[in-house]
């Protein structure tokens, strides 16, 4: 972190270089800090921080950009079975820091270290305190076994990371969150970069300019729903709705026969 760079409050807008000037990999800028004004300004301009221990803060806007349109979320048959068996309980914004740290501690194929460094944790904890950042907690028999976190601006949710200590835990939380956000009028889930896991859930790569147009619409077309989301969203009801939809489809198929 650049300690000579000023702390920016949430009301302060910082203008990053144009994303069109990014490197081939998508790096737009380096340096600065993770104060609220810096982070919120970055996301509003289609930019996010991603760096490793010993590096300056790197600010990215990759092209193409991985996104999920909420109406395209894919719920597989195996996940329907998971929802039917009711393995998990769900909450939002009840243990943000623990979820974030768990995302950093989980072992991932091809990664020797985590990018969720201590200063990253502190930066996003402040966004959580201010009501912009949110977490989903997935528990089994009272134990935290999965979750995800990100932040919300307008009708856009910016997913940051997820973890699973048991099969399907984060996937279940993610699907139910997306279903709930669709019901609340959200128009875009930013997934940042391609992964096969996200693609299996319906996410897709789009051109950066297309992403920026959707982002602009999402930021200007709806107010940011700040604060604790546990009273705003009921993920257990979303699980029940998923099962109701499947039952209705089966009944329709039977009637057609």
Task: Walk me through the topology.
Elements: E1 27-30, H1 36-44, E2 48-49, E3 58-60, E4 65-68, H2 77-85, E5 89-92, H3 96-105, H4 118-129, E6 133-140, E7 143-153, E8 156-164, H5 169-183, E9 188-192, H6 196-200, E10 204-206, H7 208-220, H8 235-256
Parallel strand pairs: 8-9
Antiparallel strand pairs: 1-3, 2-3, 4-9, 4-10, 5-6, 6-7, 7-8
Helix pairs in contact: 5-8
Tell me about this structure.
With 257 residues, the chain is of the alpha+beta class. The protein has two domains: 1-62, Leucyl/phenylalanyl-tRNA-protein transferase, N-terminal domain (Alpha-Beta Plaits), CATH 3.30.70.3550; 66-246, Leucyl/phenylalanyl-tRNA-protein transferase, C-terminal domain (Aminopeptidase, 3-Layer(aba) Sandwich), CATH 3.40.630.70. The protein is built from eight helices and ten strands. It has helices spanning 36-44, 77-85, 96-105, 118-129, 169-183, 196-200, 208-220, 235-256, and strands at 27-30, 48-49, 58-60, 65-68, 89-92, 133-140, 143-153, 156-164, 188-192, 204-206. Strands 5-6-7-8-9-4-10 form a seven-stranded mixed β-sheet, with helices on both faces. A hairpin with an 8-residue loop joins strand 2 and strand 3. Helix 5 (169-183) crosses helix 8. Mean pLDDT is 92; it is low at 248-257.
